[in-house]
Amino acid sequence: MGDIKCTNCELCGREVPADLMCTLVLNDENKVEEACWCICPECREKFKKNIAEVYKALLDK
């Protein structure tokens, strides 16, 4: 991904130092890709919970 510097959180929108967090994404061709967002430390657990809920919903189908 290179050296991406995050200056704001994409979850809460605040202008604070944030870390790049990535997850795996399945696209229409069943290829596994990676998607990344800048997430601040205060939103990190909420982000992880949101991602877990999305994957749980997909697995429960």
How would you describe this structure to a colleague?
This protein is an alpha+beta fold. It has one domain (1-61). Helix content is 26%, strand content 26%. The chain contains 1 helix and 2 strands, in the order ββα. The protein has one helix spanning 44-59, and strands at residues 19-26, 32-39. The protein has a two-stranded antiparallel sheet. The radius of gyration is 13 Å and the shape is flat. The N and C termini lie far apart (32 Å). 8% of the residues are buried.
In short:
The protein is of the alpha+beta class and 61 residues long. The protein has 1 helix and 2 strands; from the N terminus they run E-E-H.
- What summary fits the major beta sheet? 2 strands, antiparallel
Question: Which percent range describes the beta-strand content?
Answer: 25-35%
Number of strands: 2
**Radius of gyration, rounded?**
13 Å
Taken together, the total number of domains comes to 1
Arithmetic mean of pLDDT: 86
